[in-house]
Amino acid sequence: MIIQKQYKFYAAHRNEELEDKCRNLHGHRYGITCFFEVERTGSLSTLFGDFDRKIEPFLKSEYDHGMMVNIKDTLYETLMNHVLRTGEKLKLKRFSQPTTVENLAHQLFTEITDMGFRLSCLEVRETDTSVVSYTREDWVTDSRYFANSKTADTESLSE
User: Fold this and answer.
1) How many domains does the structure of the chain reveal?
2) Among 125, 68, 66, which Cα is nearest to 98's?
3) What is the domain extent for residue 26?
4) In what order do the strands lie in the sheet with 130-135?
5) What is the tens place of the pLDDT at every residue in 75-107?
6) Is 155 helix (H, G, I), strand (E, B) or coil?
7) Is pLDDT at 152 greater than 90 in this prediction?
8) How large is the C-alpha radius of gyration of the chain?
9) What is the pTM of this model?
10) Phi and psi (nearest 5°) for 126?
11) Which domain CATH number covers 47?
12) Which of 3, 13, 47, 55 would disulfide-bridge 99, Cβ 3.0–4.6 Å?
């Protein structure tokens, strides 16, 4: 059985690899729709509040009104220097790859799975007209890809 829940948060990011308007720092009101795989154990399978108790506070503390930033982006070093120089606290959600909506979907799928939930699909809405539908198969494939990328990065650093 599939239970569907929707959440939202506001966050800033930029796509430093692009040469268009999205290279600039900007923000979105992200909407996520989780499709949870659950099994009936009696008259009900899962209370909706079981999802909300973990996911809503997590999104609020990690993402909402923060900035998603790739730690390899030159802007990250600038932001960290600012923090060290001024002592100002910035809410930064660190990514090890560009903060595209596809990579956000992978990150969120991983984090929600790590909470003990089984997702069949996760939809991430970046704008009213732009949605990524990210499946468990996508997550498995991307997890292998990112694991291989980390191995390649580590090997090139040791050479």
Assistant:
1) 1
2) 68
3) 2-62+99-158
4) 92-95, 66-70, 2-13, 26-37, 119-127, 130-135
5) 999 999 999 999 999 999 999 999 999 999 999
6) helix
7) no
8) 17
9) 0.89
10) -90, -35
11) 3.30.479.10
12) 13
